[in-house]
Amino acid sequence: MQFRNKILALTIIISIIGFNSFMIAQKKSNKKTKSQLQYQQRKIERKINYTKKLLNETKSRKRSSLNQLSLLNKQVKERKNLINSYNNEIKLIDNQVIFNKENINNLQKSLEELKKEYAELIYQSYKSRSHYDQWMFLFASKDFYQAMRRMRYLKEYNAYRRQKAQQIVATQQNLKLEIGSLEKQKAERLGLLINKENEAKELEKDKRQKQKTLAELQQKEKDLKKKLKKQNDEWNKLNKEIQRLIEEEINRKDKNNKKLPMSPAEVQLSKDFIANVGKLPWPTQRGSITSHYGKYSHPQLHVIIDNKGVDFRCEQGAIIRSVFDGTVVKVLKLPQYKAVLIKHGDYYTVYNKMNDVFVKAGDKVTTKQKIGAVWTDKESGESVLHFELRKQMYPQNPEKWLIHR
Q: 258-401 — its CATH code?
């Protein structure tokens, strides 16, 4: 009988230890996933808040623009991502709730078994409660070795009884913690549902604003095409000047009219620049890409966009930074704004649509050095930096070179 009780108790102990180990591992795994989801949510929320700030800067302007539509498209996309992230976290919490309920049931069963076994131990102790009975049990031994075995048995029996009492207390505490955890998870789930509902409302508002902006732009399609043509003409003129300057740099000659090769420092700078593909910092500390590299048709409007770089919509007065060590080739002055051309060995970067410029031709610049401030269009109220990256005269896709955000 006693041997059977010991085996039963040992089985229960192993089950509890194994179950609790699994529970801890499961919680750690869930915690990591939950942490990743919450990090993703905070990141999306920062993007949404920044885009909202940019949209508010031009809220008082009556004219809609492609940049505004691009921001609204991005805002709608990010809100959908945020709602999706909330849904994933809610599913995760639902799974945790199911797991915790099962855990509570198992703990309650284990507690009942432990209490029954402990009651049996107490009853057995009551039957042989006097020290006299225990001494008689020892003195009744046939020899010294049997007496030692019986003494060890009595010690183990008393220790086992204390262990049962401790296990009951520990199981009760675990049960209390699991119930508390369950209540906390239910409260978290409710909070997420409220957040999801609020984001869904904001999403509908953004969709309506997007449709309104799109309709306004479609009505002004002719004006939009004229504006884009004018902008392209300006950029083509700037592009020719940049190509001329780069060609001059490439074909530099010495006093004997011989072409100058790149210096060892310039060769090393080119290698360092290439080594940082996908790692270059953004030319603005904060910003939102509203126009991507390449020639493409706008997905919602019948206009062709030919972009030699990328456009960053940023805050008014935003500081522009050099993306890498280099030398300023020239500061170009255009009718409304300025542009800066910087050389990085065999590579060049262009920073266009700047208002104030803090550098001059020949200046050495370092990574993230402030080189100027963005220009703001008085008509639209928008501040957009146009950024290009070239290998000699050939435009590259800047997004492949810049760090992903």
A: 2.70.70.10
